[in-house]
Amino acid sequence: MTDKTIREQLHETALKAPLSSGVYLWRNAENTVIYVGKAKNLKNRLSSYFTGNRTVKTRLLVSNATSIEYITTTNEYEALLLENNLIKKYNPRYNIDLKDGKSYPVLRITKEEFPRIFKTRRILQDGSQYYGPYPDVNALDTFIETIYKLYPVRHCRTFRKRDTPCLYYHMKQCKAPCCNKISKQSYCEYIGEINNLLKGKSEETIADLTDQMKAAAKELNFEKAARLRDGIKALMVLQNQNIVESFDSQDRDYIGYWSEGELVSFTVLKIRNGKLTGRENYRAESLNDDDDLIAEFMACYYEDIKQIPPNIYIPKTAQPELIAKWLEEDMKVESRLYVVLNDEDTNEESDFQDTDCELHIAHYAFEQRDRAAINMATQNAHEDIIRRLRDRGDTPAMEELKDRLGLDVLPVRIEGFDIAHIGGKWPVASLISFYNGNPDKKNYRYFRLKTTDGLIDDFASMKEAVSRRYTRLVNDQEDLPDLILIDGGIGQVNAVESILQSLNLDIPVAGLAKRDEEIYLPGNSTPICLPKRSDALRLLQRVRDETHRFATSRNQNLRTKENTKSIFLELPGVGEKRARQLQMQFTTLENLAKSEEAQIAQCLHIKAFEAAEILLAAKQLNEKRNEKKDSQRKSLGIAGTTKEKAAAAQYIDDLASMALDAADEEPEYGEKN
Q1: Chain centre to alpha carbon of residue 313
Q2: For residues 71, 72, 76 and 82, what is the CA-based torsion angle, rounded to 10 degrees?
Q3: Tens digits of residue pLDDT in 179-232
Q4: CA dist., res. 338 & res. 346, Å (int)
Q5: I need a labelling partner for 17 at 20 to 30 A (CA). Which of 47, 321, 381, 391 fits?
Q6: pLDDT, tens digit, for every residue of 614-645?
Q7: Strand, coil or helix: 269
Q8: Predicted TM-score of the model (pTM)
Q9: CA torsion, points 400, 402, 404, 408, in degrees to nearest 10?
Q10: CA 347 to CA 195: how far, in whole Å?
């Protein structure tokens, strides 16, 4: 049975679905449930998977499914409850399965005869005491470092008896319990003080420790009083770097999310006692619509009613009253759900408030504070998606590119070329490398072109760069790319293909033309046109734009370097001082070449034969520059017969007069080419 037949059967099932609300299940060839979704109208929802511009999520789901089932319900709220139950039962691949995107570190005090204190991300049920988590890792490191300075507790990972103490004992940072230099009771007194620093509410803890500090000072135990004083300071540093104080005392959660294809990341900001006490990131894969992602996440996240705060804030989503009803009727909590509206909705504030009064369930928040918190959560989720894409690689785009271009292998390594010059001057070819769909900057290169210096010939420039690159790879027996992308059309592509054929290399080549984003393959003047939202086109555009950026920046650096170096320094016997004198006297190299020996000798206070040598070199250098100007005019087809061509010729003359000949190569990343 072909994929087309399966797709037709799926579409037929969708068209036969009822118009009522309900839940639908997608199954794969092994009859495993891969996705569960809910719908207000089953027929409309299922039919949408086969019509219009389908997203990456939709294409992925349809390509992996072989059958559809559905269960009708009385209303959409019942569909929401049934969807949650079925997701928990089947654990489908393309529904949310929460994974902690980043476990924040905690402070652990081990359960040992002489406990150890350290930072960890693993929590073991071994009787140890844990404090945290702490989103600000730097603040936690600072606190631990301060604790080690204040309290002489052990640093070693494994406790064992020793005959002589280690270096920490001599640094007065450990009392060496391993050598019986401190009793267990005295050691545990230090641990007790550290526990007091960490447990309880911050204000109460600091107040209690302050009382202990004053009591110790009154008893003339100044060493303990000093420890407590510094410990309080360290604790306040940990709290101040870790907590935002811009909220009222009500506990609340702010939930934000970001999705890219089937990837979804959620961030929960936890506000307790008016302070930001934690930020939790969760990674998931889901093919649900964006409007349904929050509901799906909350059903997974708030399984324990003890975790549900009195107030929950979410971004604008469809039908939030269903979520609020779920909290009230299914979870049996009195939490209030707030939908945070963005700046664009401020003009509609009265409309939302009227709706709020009718629902008495879902509420709307317009405070700038709440918008800032939701934006912060959303930004954190977006950054996590970027990290996931970077770590995973852009596999969907590479797979589509392989299919569209008819490649034999997945284009894991793509190398891109571009040419940059100004009127034929400072010609540079950039080479950039993408690996797994992401920039691989350590393999970036650039080439100072030699055969086209002073000429405008992009075909010849591209040939030189490609020839130098792949001749070297062949000679060094290094790995070749899976695809070469040229910034240009069919002409540049054919030029590169001819070089590869002469090297007996079979590397696929494609060109991406800027004007209409058309893709050209060798020997075929009919371009391939991909949809604007195509993942493959997006990847090629990223490669092309990076080659252009790299080539342009290198060309600009060379222009700057040459424009800041005096042409007179190329003359024999002329250094910085004499170059300045010639610059002031003659201004240009052309004026110097037309001058007399006596003028040069008088300007530099040198003998006649030295002035004659400088004059001869100036004439030769000026003649060489004029030859390059002529070559540039010819490459542009300028005959100077019209005002426009004359102006263009003057433009080339001005450019050529601005700088020296091309300098040697300077590698930016890695080796020189």
Answers
A1: 27
A2: -30
A3: 988 998 989 888 887 887 776 545 666 777 788 888 888 888 888 788 778 777
A4: 15
A5: 321
A6: 999 999 988 887 876 666 555 445 444 454 44
A7: strand
A8: 0.43
A9: -160
A10: 52
